[in-house]
Task: structure prediction
Amino acid sequence: MFQAPVQLLVSFASVVLIRLCQTLVHEPIMSGNFQEDFQCDLIDFREKCVKDKHGNVMRWLMVLKDHFTCFVYVQPLPTKEAKGVCYELNIILSLIGFPEIYHSDNAGEVCAAEIIDMLTKGNPTINTVCSRPRKPSTQGLVKRANRSIKTMIASLEEEQKQKGDAKNWTECIGRAIGAINGARCHGKDVETPYYQVFGMPYYQPSKVPLSASRRATTVPAKALILESKSFNQRMDVLKEK
Result:
């Protein structure tokens, strides 16, 4: 009696499940070299807005990440207006080069017409991809970078607090990005993002831990711990003792 309706329900459920799976599965973003795919996003710091060293109130943090090397660049912004994002993007891309693909979500501040125009002038063959709002489950690389950056900044802010200084995330950016770009992504044999871009280590090779290196304040003391045969020679030329 109920066999036909049940079979119909099962077949209908199967069709719905297949279509749902097709909706959820996305092709992964692939890249094989630096500059192939840069992803851009903004982190909202409006609840922690602070003044930078120039007295400007910063409320946003622009994040630019290379998909292949995981190299990250960030820049605090007072607003998320497209003209400010465009200005800062132009500076960093003029330094490290314009990508083959500029990838962002569909927010106006990161894929506005003036940004596309600036990118096209820098690289006439560039492809700009402005997709739907990015989620960790889809184009999540830059979102994971955002999470790492916020975690690192929060940790450095706690250091400021323990030293008795006022928390200011704009003063933590340099150390946060240095730590991220100077760290290996996955596996002991994988080079750091910095090395993959510049072909040299972020930190100079040392015979002692980094914490001990920072305590060396004189040329002789640094010469003892640095694995550089030419260090003393260069310091002699510079007349440094």
